[in-house]
């Protein structure tokens, strides 16, 4: 059911993906609904290997040097002329990098309905967590080992 809802709720600029426990089909009492908002106008590339360039999209390169494990910086490679992405970037080491704080501030600006909740933006009632997301067409190097992992260790047998 979530897949059907996700498929009809997107638009030209973004896709909505129900995630978390509810997205996995678990309707747990007291649990909120997690929704990923994936931008269709931005793409992430792990390396600067050749890709099909679309001048209407904005491109970022994943940078993991000088970051903690599990974290990355997104360096702006190209911004489409109509993109407002620069207002969500910070200048660092001669390049522009996407700032998660500035991006989340977009959702909070002039809106008393939402508040910060960790990496997400939540409604004040605590029913829904929204996670702004960007798309990468391939597994990024730091996450690639997860594609090869054994699924026998997690979750453990009494949860499966």
Task: Walk me through the structure.
The chain is an alpha+beta fold and 160 residues long. It has a single domain, classed as Beta Polymerase, domain 2, CATH 3.30.460. Helix content is 18%, strand content 35%. It has helices at residues 2-9, 20-23, 100-108, 141-148; strands at 14-19, 33-45, 58-63, 73-78, 89-92, 95-98, 114-117, 120-123, 128-136. The strands form two sheets. Strands 1, 2, 3, 4, 7, 8 and 9 form a seven-stranded mixed sheet that branches. The protein has a two-stranded antiparallel ribbon with strand order 5-6. β7 and β8 (120-123) form a beta hairpin. The protein is globular. The two termini are 22 Å apart.
Chain-wise SSE layout:
Elements: H1 2-9, E1 14-19, H2 20-23, E2 33-45, E3 58-63, E4 73-78, E5 89-92, E6 95-98, H3 100-108, E7 114-117, E8 120-123, E9 128-136, H4 141-148
Parallel strand pairs: 2-3, 2-9
Antiparallel strand pairs: 1-2, 3-4, 5-6, 7-8, 8-9
